[in-house]
Amino acid sequence: MIDQMVEALIQVLGTILVAPLYSGIAEKLKGVVSLRRAQSVLQPYYDLFKLLKKETVVPSSASELFVYGPYFTFGVYVLISFVIPVVYPRPVFLTPTVDFLGGALLFSLVSFVKVLSAMDSKSNYVALGVSRAASFGFLAEATLITVFFAVAISTGTNNPYVESAYASNPSHYLALDHLLATVSFFMLWLFETGKLPVESQGLSEMGMIDDSLTYEHSGKPLALLKWGGYIKAYLLGSVWLNVFLLPWGGQVGVLGAFFDIGLMFAKWMILIAIVLVAETSLAKLRLFKIQDHLAIAFVLSVFSLLFSVI
Amino acid sequence: MVALIVALLILGLSPVAALIDRRSGYIACSAGSAVFVYYGMANYSNELSLFYVAAGLVWLFSSVYSLYYDHHQWLGPLYSSSILGMAIALTTNNLLVFLAGYEIMTIPAYVAIGLYKKTGYSAFVFMGFGELSTILILAGFLYSYVVTGSLSFSPLTTITPFMIAAFGFMVKMGMLPFMVTEWLPIAHGNAPSNVSTILSASMTLVAVYGLTKMALLTPRPDFFGFILLGVGGFSVFFGAFYAYVSDHAKVLLGFSTVENNGAILTSIGVYLTAPTHTLASFALITTAVYVLAHSLAKTGLFLDTGMMENESLILPRIIKNRLSDVGCVLLASSMSGLLPTVGGVATWALLESLFMEAYTLHSALSIIPIVTGSIIAMGEGFATSTMLKFIIFAHIFNKRSSNEKTRPLILLLLGLLILAGGSATYIFYRPFLASNPALGLPFGLIASEFSSQPFGAISPLYVLILPSLIGALVLAVFGKPRIRRSEVWNSGAPMNEAYTSFAYSNNIRLMLGKLLLTHIGRDGVKVVDVFWSLTHTVAKLFVSFSRHFSRTYMNSRLSWYVIYMILALIVFTVVVVA
Amino acid sequence: MGAVYISIVASAFYIQGQAYYKPLVKMTGVQSSLAALVSLLVYLQSGSPDYVFLAVILITIRGIVTPYILLRVLGERYGERERISGFASLLIIDLAFFFIAVFVLYSLVITRLFPRDFELVFAFTIFFQGLYLIASRNSTPSQIVGYLEEENAIVILGLSLIPIPLLIEASVLLDVLGLVVISAVIIYEKKVHTPLEELRG
Questions:
Q1: Where are the transmembrane segments (chain A) (predicted)?
Q2: How far apart are the CA of B536 and the nearest CA of chain A, in angstroms?
Q3: Which pLDDT band, with edges at 50, 70 and 90, does B117 fall under?
Q4: Domain limits, chain A
Q5: pTM for the full model?
Q6: Do C200 and B551 touch (CB under 8 A)?
């Protein structure tokens, strides 16, 4: 049991501390591709430290939900990092708290609390962004749930670790349902993390969907929200890498846990490369076209479910 | 047993008491409901007892709420009689007494809607569909009597009685395409919110109870369950979808009831078609837990609309209070299917059972559970967005506040009950408990199983505790934020110009315009409930046809009447002699 | 006897095709007299004097008095007729109806009940003919004539089936009460039956 606790600690700390790094690397590489001098790789860390030191400006009509909501969402993200195979390839301490579907429902819980906390500021820009996010919520949540089940039906269990081991078998890996689920999850990941072609970064109101939820926060809550965003990108991306795209290479044991952090770094480089191609060559979709993007992802995931039984 | 008799006696006396004095009627109702809850908990024998607990809690909370709610003089007796009818229907084992209770439940509600109606036909629509459902249930019960020869609920050998009765119950539950029975009486009927509560939460509970009871008696597995799966799945989607685009608080909640009933129907369908016994048992417990989650949360939300002065979410005028805010956020999170509330556990269990069934069938038939599961996932997405809309525009986005204490306290209690109930659901899942002490989970783990191996597992208790602990830890590590208050920037416009709930869902109105028949006219964007307009068209066609037919047939010409006489004579002679 | 029956049927067809009121009513008188003749023939066969009484009643009341009253009520104008178009088609429909209804009914039903009496077919003919007359006409006199035909048919039918005292009593009742009083009233009130809007639907 002590071993599992240590491994769990390594997995969680690895997630929390390393997640902003990937965003920094992606930005740096984007700058390199665009032939400009980009920010440093550690810029997200500098941003977080700066925000942690700043004061928190709260709208006069907001309540404690606005201030303390981000703490709860951060807590849920940390809980999710216990549960899914983001670093270590075997179940660790507190892994059975929820299974794969429960993980999807926890992501839903986070967005619920985040939206409520943001709307507590009673700002109209936040309302605009929330309405956009909510109008795609049905397809996004549906795709998240169905894609998490995609491998479950082939293996007969909803335990993500078993599914990861199952997918490392080449004959299962190359099956049509697995490939479809991989593509579908990637398209969903682009939406969930607010990457082009779905959303453009920055605070311009035309493109805001997810960014608007952090519009009114400042100081420590904003730091936790941004950090939570990095962790969410890391969690979903790592699930994609470890269960769908590259389910190989995980080592066990306490030393293996340290090795796995480095392995995740290598896998993430591949993901960042793919994202780089997407972000530097695609333009932002018009708002109603995002429905088409998500609908394709949903249909692909449903097909993957159907092909796993037929 | 004694508790049951006491409960029924008190509930039976409450209409009489309500006629004498309004408040004593509600107090009697609350007392009877409390005894009913005790009866359900003390005699917990199978999943059906959970229905008693859920129903009793609904009545208890709404009766206590009604004490502080000013209204019309006749409401008390009608309300209490309806509850009495429900209590009779829930606790009897005789087919005819069940039907009697069913009717006693419907008729006072019809009168209550008729007393307060805004449009002329809302009470009539309610009664019309109510009687349709009664006729179908009666037919099913008659068939059951023919098959089994006894007037009580007894095990059946064929599925036909269940099929006929199931259609009757589905009409009452507001399944596709009869969704109009849910939202029309509530919206156009303009009933006060405690009547809306028992219309939505409790009456559909009785219908589900009847359906479950009949399902327990039919031989399984059977193909008819797949039809229930399909109808339930589509009801979930369309219910959540129409809820999302409505701006009338009660219509939103009415459609949300349709959605939840669809999920419950799907769960019963899984029970009927499950290939293994374990899966069937899991589906049955899921049904009961879902009913509990829906009843409690829907009660709370409807009682919340009682505190709104008008029912529109576009310009809401609601009495805002910190306690009711917290309570309603918890209730809304349960209706959205989020852990760690009861609703979250129920949603998780439903999706798990659907995909477990797809795995165990592992043939072309699995398409049905898979497609149903995907549609329900979409419906859950809509449900989350809908509940967000309700909570935001009813509570969070507006600024009026008041010091009223008792009614918000009731809502807060309901919310806490739902939150605690989520962690306590492992009591109901007794055959499915698991534990994993090696990984730090010695108790409180619910596992979904279709055979001896678990498919997935969840622990709502840990989901409740851990994020709060971690959040507190983070707070301790980074320190409390230094707060300074300031005004929100609204581009220079006055602060009272706000983003409305209509605009919130306008994206979907336009994106899914083909489904809603969105029409952009002079007075804005209008959507229709296609099923209601279809029903309306069919009804108008029928009325015009019958008018034409009667004018043609009875055309006051003597010649034709003599021809009818000749024909009758010939037919009579031939029939009698031959 | 067969010749009498056939002439009764022929008179019925004549009535069907007649639009003018006076010949209509007069032929009804002729038909009633023929029915009385049948009764006399039955008397000759059976020997019971009651049949003579029946014949006398038939001739006096139905053969003479009733047509006289009807003619008085209708007025003495020459050439008054009912407005009908399409006699030929009515006659063809009548023939079709006659064959289908009567012969089908007879062959299916009556032969099982009363296999020996062939004369019943004539009675049924006149009965249905009277009904058809009412169905195909709009004016009150024609409809009353149709009613008279039905009465004749009942009498002929009853000659072989019902005990004779009852037959006499029934015949008298139908004649005096139902016919004379009411028909005089009706013809005064309504000459033509048109559909009443209040009675529709």
A1: 65-88, 100-117, 129-153, 173-191, 230-248, 254-278, 290-309
A2: 30
A3: low
A4: 2-309
A5: 0.82
A6: yes
